[in-house]
Write a structure and sequence with these properties.
This is 21566_t:CDS:1. With 183 residues, the protein is an all-alpha fold. The chain has four helices and no strands.
Amino acid sequence: HAIKIESLRQCITELEVEKAELEAKNSEIPELRKKLAEFEARVVEIHELRKKVADVKARNAELIKQMMEENNRRDARIEVLEKNKTDTTNRVPTLEHKHSQNDITNNNSSNFNSGADHHEKSSQSHVISENSESHEETVTKNLLRSDHVHTNTSEVSELKHDDEIDVVDTSHDPESMRSNFPK
């Protein structure tokens, strides 16, 4: 009997040790469950962040497309403006040359007509000046209305001077003066 009792006591001791080990392991389970819950929350957070990243990438792609379209439109406008600038720059020497030729012609015709009546010249100059101003306004308005508005004021100025000179060139012929301007 004594051996059975001793054997049972040894079994009890082993079971108590095993119980202590299991209780220790059981105390780790809530911590592990807590860590598992945190991990699962992080997984959900990572999934949401990946979705946001995908949304941001899609938005960035859309913005890049819009920017490229705007850049293409801007580049096209710049190309047109540069072409207009080149056209204007190319016209300036022609206008300057025409202006200087008209000045020479105007000086020659004014020397030729120097014997004419001063009063008649004064009234012709007044009519020419009024009509030139009206014509300048019309030319300026037409330039501003056109699709190819030139903001180069020197060109507008040259056009105004050019128009004035054309009118002055006809001043030595009273018949053409009367036919060009309303009474």
